[in-house]
Specification:
The protein contains 7 helices and 2 strands. The chain has 135 residues and is mostly helical. The chain has 2 domains: 1-70, Orthogonal Bundle (434 Repressor (Amino-terminal Domain)), CATH 1.10.260; 72-135. It has a two-stranded antiparallel ribbon. Helix 6 (76-93) runs antiparallel to helix 7. The longest helix is centred in the last third of the chain and has 33 residues, at 102-134. It starts with a strand and ends with a helix.
C-alpha cells in the first residue's frame, strides 16, 4: 500500500527535522535520492509501507506517533500543531528572521518558547485522542 498526502509529507518533514537528519540522509535510508525525499515531504510522491516504516524508525517514532501521521489529521489539534510547527520554523529559520538584530531576536525567543510549549501540550492531547479512539 502506498500513502500520499500533503499532511503526511509535512509530518515526515517535521519529524525528520526534529530527528536532525538531512534530506540526503533520510533519502539514503530508503534507497532514494534527495529530490525524491523533497517530493515525499511536499506530498507529491507516495510513500510505501516499507519506506514509511524505515523513516518512522529513523525518526524515533513509536507506533502511536506513526499512526498520528495519518489519523486525526483533520482534528483541530492536528491543524494547530501544523501551524505552530510552521510558525516556529519561520521564526527560527525563515527568510527575514535570519537578518534580525540581537535585540529583535531576543524579543522573538519568548514567542518561540511559548509556541513550543503549546505545541507540546497539543501533541499530548492528540496522543490522548488516539488512545481514546483505540478503546
Amino acid at each position: 500500500m502506498k500513502h500520499k498526502s500533503n499532511v503526511l509529507g509535512y509530518n515526515l518533514w517535521a519529524h525528520r527535522k526534529k530527528s536532525g537528519l538531512t534530506q540526503e540522509q533520510a533519502a539514503n535510508l530508503i534507497g532514494a535520492t534527495r529530490t525524491t525525499m523533497v517530493a515525499i515531504e511536499q506530498g507529491k510522491r507516495a510513500v510505501t509501507e516499507t519506506e514509511l516504516d524505515t523513516l518512522a524508525a529513523a525518526y524515533g517514532l513509536d507506533d502511536t506517533l506513526k499512526r498520528n501521521l495519518f489519523e486525526n489529521r483533520n482534528s483541530d489539534f492536528y491543524e494547530a500543531t501544523i501551524l505552530i510547527n510552521k510558525a516556529i520554523d519561520l521564526l527560527n529559520n525563515g527568510g527575514s528572521a535570519k537578518r534580525l538584530n540581537q535585540r529583535d531576536r531576543s524579543l522573538l525567543n519568548p514567542i518561540i518558547d511559548h509556541l513550543t510549549s503549546v505545541k507540546g501540550i497539543l501533541e499530548i492531547i492528540q496522543r490522548m485522542e488516539v488512545v481514546d479512539n483505540a478503546d
